[in-house]
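Reviewer 2 asked us to include a model.

Predict the structure of this chain.
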Amino acid sequence: MSKADHMLSILWMLKTKKRMTAKQIAEALEIHIRTVYRYIDALCASGVPIISESGHNGGYCLLDHFTETPLFFDMNEQKALIHAARFAQEAGYPFSDVLDGAISKLKRYTNQEQLHEIHRHSIGFDVIHAPSDPALETILKELEISVANNYTLTIEYQTGYGTSITTRNIDPYGLIYWRGKWYIAAYCHLRLEIRSFRVDRIRALSRTIEVFKRPADFSVRRFFLENISFQSDQKESLISVRIQGNPQAINDLCEHWFLGHAIVERSVNHIHAKLTEQAILSYVPHFLLQYGTSIRVLEPPLLKEKLVTVTSTLLQHYQT
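Predicted model (structure tokens):
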């Protein structure tokens, strides 16, 4: 453990117990008693109100008002942090090992009453974790570091659903997690504009010697929500897509990560969206197939024809 970890551990122990001797602290942390004295002096010098009492029942303790300071989390805050950590791990958070260490430290130095309460609220709360991909975790870590330090990257990126790989330089502005996938918003030196890239389609990346300056008012969340549905390699005119269906299917389509932000009008059993021709010919037919006969495409004819083609191809594939 580092010096900072040891000093924080001493604070937690003094918070959870009324009084501790230097020997008890040294044994708990497995460090020399003289080291404990140095850490106590350093904490006092930084303004922590530690009281030292000599004698048979003496030891170190904190002033009562200090144990109530926001430096320490109450039970509800600890519970929320543990719950949030489970969601982060489900999303494939790239620093899960550090997160696990922080949560373990939190549990180790809370008092027994709070630990029991946290356990009661944790046994009935869980998240199913997606399979961990070590390669994706490595890429996410490098992207996060590059966003923070303004490193320009060279990436090998798989475009669409094909096998085409393009090499390009990007200035990564921010990571975002959306409906089970990680995306990076970045300025693309190839397209000369800000674009979003699916992280799981980045096959390789490396730092360049260049650094960049992020626009001061850039918001990755705002950019992503405004642009994810309409991005393509070329600026295209948008085509009206009208779909009719039962209310449950229509609601589900409106909440879809891709289609939801392209909808311009909807009713109980009808939606009107505007999409690019590229989306209509590639992605849209495939996710519409899962709704079967619960929906009907009214227009454009291009989408209906593509649905027929995709369905026929599947039929032929499984018949042969």
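The first strand starts at residue 50 and ends at 53. The two ends are 62 Å apart (CA to CA). We have added this to the supplementary material.
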